[in-house]
Amino acid sequence: MNAALLLEHYARIADAPDAIARMRRFVLDLAVRGKLVEQDASEEPASKLLQAFESERAIRVARKEMRKRKGLELGSEIPFEVPSSWLWLPLGETGHIFSGSSINEVTRERFSRAEDGRPFIATKDVGYGFDQLAYSNGLLVPTSEERFKTARPNTPLICAEGGSAGRKIGLCDREICFGNKLIANELWGQIAPRYVLCVYLSGFFYDQFCSRMTGVIGGISLNRFLQLPFPLPPHNEQHRIVTKVDELMALCDQLEAARAAREAARDTFTLSTLARLNTPDPEMFVADARFTLANLAPLTTRADQIKQLRQTILNLAVLGKLAEQDPADEIADVPPLRQFSAASSIDPAVFEKFSKTISLPGGWQVAPLAQLSAYIVDCPHTTPKWKEQGEICIRTNQLRPGALDLSAPRYVSPEEYVERIERLEPLVDDILYSREGGILGIACLIPPGIRLCLGQRLMLIRAGAETRPDFLELVLNSPFITSIAKACTTGGAAPRVNMSTVRAYPIPLPPLAEQHRIVVKVYELMAVCDELEAGITTGEHTRSRLLEAILRQSLKTDTDRDEGPSNA
């Protein structure tokens, strides 16, 4: 491997999606294709090993350690070409392959009290690669228990059933008993156990494994497993492959640790920076805000960080920290707060509790949503009767914070449209609000030029004269309001917020002129977030392509490099 080439460019590819995992898969892919180490023409070809395999099988059959069985045949189609010294053969020809023993609860309880014996390995005790098996799981099978199948040291194991089938793989380093969902392969002496582990972990083997799985749960029968194609190199080349794989996996471990440390430091830096804005220090806020705005790109290198940034922007808007206050602004004329009775349509406890949790600039007020809205209406509670064409009926999954997704509209008849707008016909700049389900608490404005009605689990909010609709939309999507919605949900598995709670949301209200300035600033910063997000996507694509090219080039043998670079 040309490790210097990989390390030279690693900083450019390290942030590619699943960079290290893809490097590991690529190493294994080359290993099982005979492209990781050079072939030695002086070595006997793998076909010379077959006689030794037959001799070892005959000895084990004579000792009654295994049953004699019919020979296996390899299908006419092989997955890919291998070097001329290699050999394709059925997996069943590589060793004594057998599944484990089932264990009931009574026996499990007895084994949990045993003080000596062989470890009993179940699927949960097997990892996804080179990790050691979990031997200290509390279950020991006494050596007197002859009915439980045992596997010798250096036996590869693979899960054959369920969600982990073909993915949970391990190599035991001691004699074990094992469960019936695992398949063991006690290899012939001329086959390197860690090479078989590399084959099991390769992408080609997993594809072949999955193609032979059956059943609702998903699993592979022992007979089908025995027939899987296996690429066998000469004996010494197997060990050279294992040595090279171990070397490259150790390098991947180092790169993974360095990446984790870098990501942890970056996350800490980003979170602490955004936290200083969300809970601002009055004396340091201006400097902190300037620093953040000047360093948005290095602060946000992943999509989840962009999401955090968007939430911070909305939080600052609600706190009155995003735009400057102007003493000349005319304060919004909000009617005086009134005492709400328990029988009213507003939950007074919600307003009284949460309105006290926010500190606002001078000139701002806080009032219940119902007091700042001309209308707040709930949707019809009947399921829409969908039609191929007609009038658009909005579903909750079409709502995005600040946007309405109309890429896949659904329709109702004109007659049902009339029924569904009986309470209030939606107009441009009205706000759609989801108050139930997995996307609870999302608000978006109705765009111009669209005629629609409401499906289920939605509310329609029309801003009053004191509130700009676009500003109210920002407040409803802000962490301040969404946290209130989550704190007040009912319904258990299908969480929802009651109408009286929504009407009682405490809405921070600046003067109308400042509302306009806040909206302009939010839109400006959200556009920057869009650009950063697009840049991340483009960068990930570029890094992915570069990663593939560098991997192919850096993992070439010297002979390959003499032939010139490949087209990655």
Describe it.
- This protein has 568 residues and is an alpha+beta fold.
- Among the domains are: 44-233, DNA methylase specificity domains (Adenine-n6-DNA-methyltransferase TaqI, Chain A, domain 2, Alpha-Beta Complex); 331-509, DNA methylase specificity domains (Adenine-n6-DNA-methyltransferase TaqI, Chain A, domain 2), CATH 3.90.220.
- 40% of the residues lie in helices and 14% in strands.
- It contains 18 helices and 21 strands.
- The strands form 7 sheets. Strands 2-9-6-7 form a 4-stranded antiparallel sheet, covered by helices on one side.
- Strand 17 (431-434) and strand 18 (443-445) form a beta hairpin.
- The longest helix has 44 residues, at 235-278.
- It is elongated and about 100 Å long.
- Residues 557-568 have low confidence and may be disordered.
Secondary structure layout:
Layout: H1 3-13, H2 19-32, H3 50-62, E1 87-90, E2 95-99, H4 105-112, E3 118-121, E4 140-141, E5 150-151, E6 156-159, E7 169-171, E8 176-178, E9 182-187, H5 193-201, H6 203-211, H7 222-226, E10 229-232, H8 235-278, H9 285-294, H10 296-299, H11 303-319, H12 348-355, E11 365-368, E12 373-378, E13 391-394, E14 399-400, E15 403-404, E16 411-412, H13 414-420, E17 431-434, E18 443-445, E19 452-454, E20 458-463, H14 469-477, H15 479-487, H16 499-503, E21 506-509, H17 512-554, H18 558-562
Parallel strand pairs: 3-8, 13-19
Antiparallel strand pairs: 1-10, 2-9, 3-4, 5-8, 6-7, 6-9, 11-21, 12-20, 13-16, 14-15, 17-18, 17-20
Helix pairs in contact: 1-17, 2-8, 8-9, 8-11, 11-17
